Amino acid sequence: MRHSLCLATISFLASFSIAQAADVPAPEVPMYGEAPAATWRLFEEARLGVFAHDPDSPEEGSVDINGEILSSRLPLINPLSRWAWLSPRLHLGGTVNTAGDTSHAYAGLTWTADITQRIFIEGSFGGAIHDGETGDIVPNDRSDLGCSPLFREAGSIGYRVTTNWSVMASIEHLSNAGICDSNRGLTNYGVRVGYRF
């Protein structure tokens, strides 16, 4: 009798624990393609970050503030497909130097690929306009960028803290790809925080 009562108590407690666990929702951090927007959105995510300004250049030693907005994925591929990452997002942003060196505004396309539910990687390509040096005579403490506009490439590896918030390590590079006489380029490294609406 005592043995049966013990088994019944253990069974009840186990059932109760399982039921309670089922009632507690797990934190939701969906992969990008698992929660597609009902309709395409021009403004889906905003980002803000801090970059080290081209540490290997004449302009080294200063800090940039970066801001960027992104759309949802262009509706080119089914958002639940394993190939959804091939559909890019539009981006528009700017990187402002806090010491009066080269700042720029940019636009282009960003491709986001999920590695796990929380970890993702990104690649971006587009163009940028800047207020840096392009003339025949360039001060020793400034980078000779040759011309404007420039090509801009960027990459990030990120971590989704929640469904809405993410953090990422980013690098951006601007150059004219040899189209102009000078092509010093500009490369900034930093961290950013993103918020998905």
Observed structural traits:
disordered N terminus; 8-stranded antiparallel barrel; 1 helix; about 200 residues; 8 strands; mainly beta
Describe this structure as you would to a colleague.
It is a single chain. The chain has one helix and eight strands, in the order αββββββββ. The protein is mostly beta strands and 197 residues long. Helix content is 11%, strand content 41%. The chain starts with a helix and ends with a strand. The chain has an eight-stranded antiparallel barrel with strand order 1-2-3-4-5-6-7-8.
Q: Provide the spatial order of strands within the biggest beta sheet.
A: 1-2-3-4-5-6-7-8
Number of helices: 1
Identify low-pLDDT runs: 1-27
Quaternary structure: single chain
Q: Report the order of strands and helices.
A: HEEEEEEEE
Proportion of beta-strand residues: 35-45%
Largest sheet, in brief, is: 8 strands, antiparallel, barrel
Number of E-state strands: 8
Termini Cα gap: 60 Å
What is the residue-averaged pLDDT?
Answer: 85
Molecular shape: elongated
- Estimate the helix proportion, in percent: 10-25%
Structural class: mainly beta
- Rg to the nearest angstrom? 24 Å
Question: Gist?
Answer:
The protein is mainly β and 197 residues long. The chain has one helix and eight strands.
Topology at a glance:
Blueprint: H1 2-23, E1 45-52, E2 63-70, E3 89-97, E4 104-114, E5 119-130, E6 150-160, E7 165-175, E8 186-196
Antiparallel strand pairs: 1-2, 1-8, 2-3, 3-4, 4-5, 5-6, 6-7, 7-8
